[in-house]
Design goal:
Helix content: 25-40%
Shape: elongated
Strand content: 15-25%
Structural class: alpha+beta
Strand order of the largest sheet: 14-15-13-12-16
Number of strands: 16
Oligomer: single chain
Length: about 450
Amino acid sequence: QQQQPHGSSASSIISPFGGAPFDDGNFGNVGFLEGKRVCPISVVGGDDQETNETAPGGDPSSLTDGNDDAAGAAASPNDEDEEEEPSIDYSSILHAASCQALVNLSDKQLPILSSNFYAQHVLPICSQIAEHQPQFKMELKQTKWKKFGVYLQRELASRDVIQLKADKTNPAASISRIYRRHDDLKGLSKDAGSNVQDKKTKLAVVSLYRIPKQVVTSLRLPEDDVLAKNAKSEARRGTGFLTLAETKGMLDAYVASNDLDRRSKVALDGPLTDTLYRKQRSSAPDQLLKKEMYERWKTSVLEPAYALVEMPGSKVLELHKGIPPKVQLVVERAKQRQDKFITRLRGMEYYGLTDGEALCQDVSRRFACAGKVVHDPTTEKRPALAKKNHVELVFQGHLAEELQALLMGDEKGSSHGGVKNSPYSVPKQVIDVELRKGVSARKKRR
């Protein structure tokens, strides 16, 4: 049995492995008592003795083991490490997208250049697979293959998923055959998961009209009808924005109430002559064909307006006076190299595309081209922008066809794979394409 040190009692606080007892605030020290290790202090004594005793004049924390802090630190991992976002598996995304793209390809599209296959078919599917990553951008250098050609050779061709055709400089120049019975392709169906087009809404521009106040006064038109208080669309009620049919209905009511109807013609009284001919009153006929009356009413009397409508559902988003502003696509030759082209885009902000930086990045990724955002085109001797917060986007290459199809959300407008799954829906009638001097329209892609 271990001998108790001199001056200690049964209730003294000592180390069970030896060492000096607690004595007037002094603890045992290694090197003085048989060179033994100092261990956590425990209580030796009766059952009613408290397990944690406080040294007189000391701190309760002094009774704990000196290694507790280190142990606690080791047991509690860094909170920042726990909250770290999981890294993106670029290799898995590339392989999944490539397999889906191979399934989507038809045999009639083979052989296909590897570069075209990647830009037109693989990249759009990569974005769809990684849709939970808003700023996702495929980085080939982050994959284990580093290059797409290496991936085709080592992952697909070597495992008999595809057959490659080489040229003089590139062993993976094109894909000539797809082995559709391979296990990597068996579980996939054509265009699987690409139902964005079916569910997305489209934007439409609807022509509307307003009747000038002097015409309302001259023809004594009903105020409720002029303000469209009984319009089918709640958004138009009381605004004065009218459809062409509604304005014609008011004109017909005036003709009928004044007994001016002459079957296929209309007799012109004073107010109607002033309305239709204004300063040309002296050359006005006594009677006018109804067809001609409606045409003059539309072109010479009514004030143009328009509405932005979400389809399907005919939900009116905005009402504006005047004619719809244009989205301008201009293709011109590059100043530095006359054999190269650049495509300029402006005016897209009118139709909801207010983030020029995001649109520029999306177009550059889809069509594998360089792009930039110009905030002040006047520095390049270009016309000033229509509004303060508008920008002009400049892209490398002749992209008139591709950009028009992408902005419209029309996959059939271009065979380029970059237009697939477009989130945009700019109405066709507001896109104005201009080919500058020396730029010819490109032949349709096959």
